[in-house]
Amino acid sequence: xxxxxxxxxxxxxxxxxxxxxxxxxxxxxxxxxxxxxxxxxxxxxxxxxxxxxxxxxxxxxxxxxxxxxxxxxxxxxxxxxxxxxxxxxxxxxxxxxxxxxxxxxxxxxxxxxxxxxxxxxxxxxxxxxxxxxxxxxxxxxxxxxxxxxxxxxxxxxxxxxxxxxxxxxxxxxxxxxxxxxxxxxxxxxxxxxxxxxxxxxxxxxxxxxxxxxxxxxxxxxxxxxxxxxxxxxxxxxxxxxxxxxxxxxxxxxxxxxxxxxxxxxxxxxxxxxxxxxxxxxxxxxxxxxxxxxxxxxxxxxxxxxxxxxxxxxxxxxxxxxxxxxxxxxxxxxxxxxxxxxxxxxxxxxxxxxxxxxxxxxxxxxxxxxxxxxxxxxxxxxxxxxxxxxxxxxxxxxxxxxxxxxxxxxxxxxxxxxxxxxxxxxxxxxxxxxxxxxxxxxxxxxxxxxxxxxxxxxxxxxxxxxxxxxxxxxxxxxxxxxxxxxxxxxxxxxxxxxxxxxxxxxx
Length: 506
Description:
Immunoglobulin-like, about 20% strand, elongated
């Protein structure tokens, strides 16, 4: 019994100790609760402060957006003002170009007029010095004058016949040249079709091997190649005809010059100084008239040799425009950009500020002509960009009307897929419809085809290996259609590009 009492007392002591510990824990718990309440109050205060900061931030964002809108409006107005100033500068440059052209023409005309005036003064002095001898030689010169007039009429008739025959040859040459230009245009169209067919054939051979479509494309390629060869043969034949007609025209030109020289010789000989005053015209007037006519004949024979060819280059390469002119004399040759009417170069002087533009020329002496030279002018444009594509003019600044030729620059650009305008990986529920879109840029315009990455047929209304078009529509998608699809863009300019689009069916 004592043992139990002892154990009980020990148990009571332990119980008291536990009670004291519980009391201490209650005190600690109360202290922790107070701390928690203080932390919660601090948290509420910080939350309220954060809300205030959020309101201030939203207000600042509104003010910033307003400032951005104001800056955009100012930028837009500045751009509009810049565009107006650029338009005014271009207008001024165009007016300046016209004034420069008119100044050059007037300078040339003044030079010719000064030469004619000097010739007239020389003839006048000659006539005045020979006046004392006119009375003694009047009768003998009357007979000579009749002979001269007869010779003059014959020479004029010969000259007119040569001009009529030359105009007929010129018309025939223009007709054949027009046919040659049409043949060249048809040849360019056939070359483009042939390039497209070869690109399609390469795609089909890479995707399907030897299939019926590949055979049809090969036949189409052979047909286009045959048509292109026939077009080249016709063009060569027309070129030979034009060469023969040019030889005939040069022969007529030599005869024409000989006739004019003989006529001028008869009218400017020493015996014309004693022409009677009562004659209907004076020799020096006739000689000056013939001199002007001869200059006009020279101007008329200044001409282009062939058509300035079009140029096709890839981005970053160098483009060269070649312009061949016969009988340039002292006239100026200029190169212009057609769409902007910008003067690029005049003779050997580059007008534009672009460092990519240079101009050169070479001289070929034509032994068949008594005067004049054949010059080959070349305009070099380095590191071309798609913005350089367009028409370029080679202009001969002789008397009005000025003659010119226009050639076009085609800048080929390899295909490139526009990622932002094309579809990305797509997940769709089974039975739904899927639309895959692919956009590409390049020149010529890229051809877009679709195929599966695993070379399995695409299950649409019927199973096909390749689908053409920028959009691939899949209706009622099932799990067998879950695969990676390739969008391939090609335009005959290497390399073709592709984009992988993964279609998941849930």
